[in-house]
Amino acid sequence: MKFNLDQEKPIFLQIAEGIEDGILTGAFPEGSQIPSITEFSVNYKINPATALKGINLLVDENIIFKKRGVGMFVSDGAVQKLRQKRQDQFYTNYISSLIEEAKRLGITSDDIIAMIERGFSQ
Fold it and tell me: Residue limits of the HTH gntR-type domain (predicted)?
């Protein structure tokens, strides 16, 4: 994971998204332990409170869970929850604005599908 300290996105969100990416790619399989808050703070030279804030976001979403005295682990079903979350974000961030602009330009859904298929075949 890399964190961009110059980016507008807060570091704790970058930590949460980095862990999410690790879960989605299989670096942190369901049931496996993730690095501790101390490991995050030492390895990435960040405040432990910042690391905790990012991890707690995922705890609140039931993506990871705490085993007292042992550490943090990836919850069963985390991959599916994250895929759904990211798909919803994708729709909100990209598709809805694409549709609005297409309507303004008179582009049909068939035209959009053809453009997307052209992009995938390149």
Answer: 9-77
To which H or E segment does residue 40 belong? Answer: helix 37-44
Contact 47, 53 (CB under 8 A): no
d(CA 108, CA 56): 43
Distance CA 34, CA 30 (A): 10
Contact at 8 Å (CB) between 54 and 16? Answer: yes
Angle, alpha carbons 117-106-94 (nearest 5°): 55
φ, ψ dihedrals at 3, nearest 5°:
-120, 135
Q: Most distant CA pair in the chain: distance in Å? A: 59
User: Per residue in 38-63, pLDDT tens?
Assistant: 998 998 888 999 999 999 999 999 99
User: Are 63 and 75 in contact, with CB atoms under 8 Å apart?
Assistant: yes
Contact 37, 51 (CB under 8 A): yes
